[in-house]
């Protein structure tokens, strides 16, 4: 099968569709006799994203852009303030996070964390960590449970002998494998990976990335891959979404977005990538100015205004529309850039 | 490195902790086996009253001719027993309350917080006195009173430890595994908090023993002729001026030793249990 | 006659005494940094890069022992100097910025005061003058509204701003050498670029040399004049940046590059480095610590001391370089 056909298929059969998801947090202390409404921090603002079957979608953005909040909403660990999450034919956002633990879809959406050590209970062995979701979500016990755990470990290249160890007795790469084994144990449809390799040495990272690619193929999963390492994102993602201050400012096929970014922020991001072994040719795009505050942002202005190298008067007066600079791509900008970087 | 190997290392590096462990073993032995091993019946009076320490009576005899040594050893069972009982109660209740407050937050935290604040508003020993005086002068009430006045510190420690771990990665992972809030609290947070609470037990044990002895010193709780360190010190206090120092001295020494042992034990246990101190 | 280097590390060997044995963290480490030069020290975790930095600053853990070698900084023998002389040096001539910016700032003191501390200690400024200069330094490192921010506590500032404060503290007395230990890990890619630009600009303005310790080859490529590659406590290659990456001569350098994601290389094209770090507690470590993982290993690689091949400005510690 060639790539464009897979892409078309993926778009035709999305595994998950997030529709206008928002998360707003009230800021400041609750007042007993509040006269004015408390200010709201717009962590995620009207984000819509579709993840196709077998697809790897990258999610990038600086700290504070809302990627963590978005991933926690999609994993149903926190509730959105508004919006829908369509998965398997139902709207998961309608089910409160506290009750989602008992929902059948819980086993179908899992997560791999950045800090593998912190994500495993220090008092559990690797076996117990991997067994937990199988026990709760698949109801396995005894020999069947042990067999499943061993199969998951084997798939992740984790030797059986290490299953009896505690997290502090495992190396960085081994802990990462335990985290992945636990996440794939229930054979989820969607795996959310939050910076899974950023704490690993470059050589171990290669091994883990190969493992993730192999698992995706073998189990037919889709990935949402969050990372700040744009070289890795470019390497393994089919599509990429760029977030800034709670909004998706650009989205499209990874190679196209990296080659010719349409949004000025994406352009600055791509330009700041340091290529190992190759010194940069010209000057780098510098973002001057302070980022806007995510608290009660001006609805009639672009969030990137003030830092954008291309800022025009219109950007401060009207919210940017979502435009499609090329088929399959979208950007949230009044003046998207169309020529390659 | 396994817990046992780490424990051995800690004991090797801290001879003082090793000594504390030996003393602890000695105290427990005295509590368990003491009454069957002592040379004299602790309640039996004799006509050799106020005899100074000698080969026949290692710690001398008191005003009723009772052997002080036998009484000191036998009293270990009562003093330690009451302190253990109180600590067991407060360990269970304080840990659960603290973990719930720290993990669930919100109203649970506020209510438990106010309860602990109320208890801590009083000087704790005075509160214990008041509780025993009001509820009745029995051993059981002394145990309850001791438990109540120690509740705040257990609840606070447990609350802090639960709070720190509330946002931990493994809590999120547990939710992803299908665990509900209550399950996360019991199966994930509690096992991490328990070792720290056990250290807390041995640290406050000394205080509990002092509390029990203190209450009986002023006449609340244990009554004569029962052998108990606090009463013995109270009875012997009057005789110090006339020169019969041994009646109050040896029970006082035993008290000091017990408190000292448990404090040292607590420090040593903390070194063994706290994973961050492992290098 | 060429100027003597600002920092010369010669045959440095450092050991750590631990419960499970003696760890031979550094062995025969030699390299030099000239005035105004930016040298990158790269390697994976456990390579000894940070240990080298702490050894230069004489801030090693008490369980560490320098078993041989010399560290000469600005003509001063660092290993023989007494604590008073070293305390004078640190902050004034030699400064360091750390990986976790928040952790290197005192959480209960205002940032302006922390900068002023260095100025009062080393520049002999009075309280008022030091406070004013601290505000000026905050402006220099690009912190907006510096007079207000000087009164802020570290927790009120973002990671990037804390790192800027760390730079302000380090550069307050215009040191001759700045050691930057993974200064951009944990920062966003845009903040990384800005921070490194700042260090480069401030450095260039004062002719300051920089030792940049990092595992990020991209960062090393962009910022360093020369790169020193370390593996398991050894220096394996030391060459000008472009030459090093264009044509690596040590097998480890080549494999490190081959494992790093970069444009034009697919996932299948990346290859991990086989094996793992040797156990540095062993006392039978071979002279070449990479030989066990090297696919170019020959019989004579494990025999005899490791030769240092010198080719112009490049040094390679390999018997059979690429």
Automatic annotation (TrEMBL), chain B:
Subcellular location, record wording: Cell membrane
Keywords: Membrane, Peptide transport, Protein transport, Transmembrane, Transmembrane helix, Transport
Source species of the chain: Elioraea tepida
Classification via InterPro entries: BP-dependent_transpt_permease, MetI-like, OppC_N
Domain of life: Bacteria
The family this protein is said to belong to: Belongs to the binding-protein-dependent transport system permease family.
Listed transmembrane segments: 80-107, 119-136, 142-158, 245-266
Gene Ontology CC, one term: plasma membrane
Mode of membrane association: Multi-pass membrane protein
Domain ABC transmembrane type-1: 76-266
Name of this protein: ABC transporter permease
Record keyword Ribonucleoprotein present: no
GO terms for biological process, alphabetical: peptide transport; protein transport; transmembrane transport
